[in-house]
Amino acid sequence: SDNKASAEHPSPQTPGPNPLADEVRAGLTQTPKRLSSRFFYDAEGSRIFQEIMHAPEYYLTRSEYEILDTHKSDLVTLFAAGGYEVDLIELGAGDGLKTKLLLEHLWENQVAFRYVPVDISEDALEGLVGTLRRQWPSMTVRPQHSDYFTALERLSGETHRHQTPTRRVVLFLGSNIGNFTRTETVTFYQNISSRLLPGDLVLTGVDLQKHPAVIHAAYNDRQGLTRAFNLNLLRRINRELDANFDLSAFGHYETYDPESGEARSYLVSEKAQQVQIRALNITVPFAYGEVIHTEISRKFTRAQIEQLATDTGFVLTDWFTDCKAYFADVVFQK
Ligand code: AVI
After folding, report:
1. d(CA 202, ligand 1 centre) in Å
2. Distance between CA 84 and CA 61 in Å, rounded?
3. Most buried one in 160, 233, 300, 334, CB count within 10 A?
4. From CA 320, how far away is CA 327, in angstroms rounded?
5. Over the stretch 294-308, which tens digit does the pLDDT of each residue have?
6. 40 C-alpha to center of ligand 1: Å?
7. Using CA positions, which residue lies closest to atom 3 of ligand 1?
């Protein structure tokens, strides 16, 4: 019903909790300053991220595309083994470009499935659903505009409603896992694990540790797309929280530490300045060279991913990589 739809998708005007306001208040009044990368993905941020995925330095998307293209038939065989119906739940679906490879293969092989793309960007989700409906009008697609945690909560109750035995396959592609800290990662996989039944699967896209210069360049592209992506967070705060960040007075700074496997993005204040955030009634001082940490993008070894499976109640059953071994798509079974 309409009521249900509006309860599930509150409009931005709905008064109530404002996660960006809470994040900015907490993150910019502490030292060192920080803001979570989850706020990158407004309409403009999602658009810039799509461009990043096509940038020559950003190998991640191409590597994963190669893996899924090469191994789609192995994957679909795993998903549908035993004649189960497949519930494909994709966390952080974005534009779903890579997932379409799997959907197409499932469809052509007449596997009974339902696709539930989940994303915090409504624009990305609408775009994805639009293309799917045009290409496969009778495919069952149930988009969900929410964060990961709300999506996981819904994973629980749904199992027993199905008539036919169903296998849930959670997709977490594109190195989204890398944007969590280590602790968040373990909590997240434990959370998924506790909601799945034996035989259910999780397919994760993992960026692997490699030559540090290759990784550093991926987050420091020559066209300045990553820079624009990072700075767009300040534009969003200006718009949504009535702030006055001067975008020309902040820069993009990237580090990659090959020992920890962590790429980190920062915004740097290019001068001493004060910024008013009127919706929060605060003034934030910046020293020359002071940074806001905005993103962590972790790179993994196979041993770390095996450990993650063990720590969170899964068995690692398959490990697929691209020809350069830059990236892996990993199957965990509950
Ligand atoms: C979405 N996420 C996996 C991307 C990454 O590589 O960490 C976001 C991104 N940040 C800068 N470039 C791309």
Report:
1. 20
2. 30
3. 233
4. 8
5. 999 999 999 999 999
6. 10
7. 176
